[in-house]
C-alpha cells in the first residue's frame, strides 16, 4: 500500500509554518534586503567602509558584520543608526499575521 504524503497539496509556506522556520526565513530576508540597500546607498554616495565605520563610531569589522546579509544578530537600533548615516531612515511596520 502506498503511503500518502502528509504535505501533499500543501504550499511551501504552510510547510514552513509547520516546521517553525517561516518567521526565521522572513527575518533573514529582511536583513538581506536592508544590508543590500545600505551597501547600495554607500556605493551611490561614494562612502567607503572606513568612512561609514567612522560615521557609526565603530570598527570596520563591526561594519562588515552589519553589512553581512547572513548576520541576523544586528539590532534594529544599529540598522536605524546606519540608515541615518547614509541619509535614510529605517521603516518597520506591524501587520496582521493572516
Helices and strands in order:
Elements: H1 12-18, H2 22-44, H3 49-55, H4 60-67, H5 76-85
Helix pairs in contact: 3-4
The CATH C-level name of one domain is Mainly Alpha
Distance between the termini: 38 Å
User: Helix content range of the residues, please?
Assistant: 55-70%
In terms of DSSP E residues, the strand content is: under 5%
Shape: elongated
Mean pLDDT: 86
CATH architecture field of one domain:
Orthogonal Bundle
Strand count, sense and closure of the main sheet? none
Strand tally, please? 0
Q: What Rg, in angstroms, do the CA atoms define?
A: 19 Å
Uncertain regions: pLDDT < 50 for 5+ in a row? none
SSE sequence, one letter per element: HHHHH
The class by helix and strand makeup works out as mainly alpha
User: How is the CATH topology of one domain named?
Assistant: 434 Repressor (Amino-terminal Domain)
Helix count, DSSP H or I runs of 4 or more residues: 5
Would you give an account of this structure?
With 98 residues, the protein is mostly helical. The chain has a domain at 23-84: 434 Repressor (Amino-terminal Domain). Helix content is 56%, strand content 0%. Helix 3 crosses helix 4 (60-67).
